[in-house]
Amino acid sequence: RLARKLENAFLHGVKVQRTSSTAGSLGGVLQFIAGAGGNIDATGGNLSQTLINNVIEDISAKGGMLINPVILCAPNQARRISALNTSGANPQVFKDISDRTLGGFTTAFIGDLPIADKGTIAKIFVAQNMLKDKVAILDMNSISSKVMRGLTAKDATTNGTDGQKQRILTELTLEVKNATSAHGIITGLNL
């Protein structure tokens, strides 16, 4: 449960500046990369290699290097990416002669634009809390979580409780460098 809550905050958090009367909250990666002037493809429709490659090209045109690229998507879009590799004239299928397995999945996407004398090979990461109609292309070298206040344990036992309760507290924030140039997002995709 804790991992899901952290994933949800890092994806969908809405940045609120802390004041004396307002609790602050961290901004999620989707809030940062979907800002004005960002690499946003709102064509919609079915996810395709062309849509992904177009966003990679937009990132490159704005100076993004995609040093450690990741395609972040929900399970339904990950399945669509895997399906791209099962049709057409040149699917990449590697099987041993004794292999009796049916089915397959894709763990990386190779872009068609050579950036900095190398191809863009993006790992595919499935996030259960990701919006089903969006796919993000992120450079993980430009994203990090920062600990503002380390883990502490506090007694949370209330009077009359038979037992002891503890609360573990920490304060984290998300740092997204070059949010509108080093990353991109595809929106309005078919489910």
Structure report:
Helices cover 20% and strands 26% of the residues. It contains four helices and eight strands, in the order ααβαβαββββββ. The protein has a six-stranded mixed sheet with strand order 1-8-5-2-4-3. A two-stranded antiparallel sheet has the order 6-7. It is globular and about 70 Å long.
Largest sheet, order of strands side by side? 1-8-5-2-4-3
DSSP summary: helix tally: 4
**Mean of pLDDT:** 90
Could you state the order of secondary-structure elements as H and E?
HHEHEHEEEEEE
Quote the distance from N terminus to C terminus: 25 Å
Number of strands: 8
Helix content: 10-25%
Our estimate of the beta-strand percent is 25-35%
Which segments are poorly predicted (pLDDT under 50) over 5 or more consecutive residues? none
Largest sheet geometry: 6 strands, mixed
Cα-atom Rg, whole angstroms?
20 Å
Task: Give me the oligomer status.
Answer: single chain
Morphology call: globular
Instruction: Please state the structural category.
Output: alpha/beta
